[in-house]
Design brief:
There is one protein chain. Strands 1-2-4-5-6-3 form a 6-stranded antiparallel beta sheet. By secondary structure, the chain is of the alpha+beta class. It is built from 3 helices and 6 strands; from the N terminus they run H-H-E-E-H-E-E-E-E.
């Protein structure tokens, strides 16, 4: 499924001056048809009530799906950009890590659709998201 071989360490060595880096999202596993990452639940990702902010969950989902799409395309010719995302927040998380598991629902020439399920430290699902990614031609410089 992946266009070229990637390693977890290569994904984690990306520049940190972006939202995923600021929230300390760490990739943990690359499988034959899935990608996983974790995100800490702490003051960076809390809402005022002291639980995981739904927007932070969406950042984890979009980070996973966008990188998964990037891993499926020829980066010399194409770019993967988010087109639509939704999320259902199923239970609150106060602390620890959430783990996102990203799997494809559709890998086409122009769009990719990903399902991202997120789990708390106890293995209970706290969020499910679906991300649609547009595959566009890379601009000529």
């Amino acid at each position: 499924m992946w266009f070229t071989a990637f390693t977890v360490s290569a994904l984690n060595d990306r520049p940190k001056n972006h939202l995923g880096g600021l929230l300390d999202i760490q990739f943990t596993e690359i499988g034959p048809d899935f990608l996983t990452a974790t995100m800490p639940v702490d003051e960076r990702t809390h809402q005022p009530a002291g639980i995981l902010h739904g927007g932070a969950s969406v950042v984890l989902a979009e980070t996973l799906g966008s990188i998964a799409s990037y891993m499926c395309i020829d980066p010399e010719k194409h770019m993967a950009v988010g087109l639509e995302i939704n999320a259902n927040h199923l239970r609150p998380v106060k602390s620890g890590l959430v783990t996102g598991i990203c799997k494809p629902l559709h890998i086409g020439a122009k769009t990719h659709v990903w399902e991202i399920k997120m789990y708390n430290d106890k293995g209970k699902m706290n969020c499910i998201s679906r991300l649609t990614v547009a595959i566009i031609a890379k601009p000529q410089v």
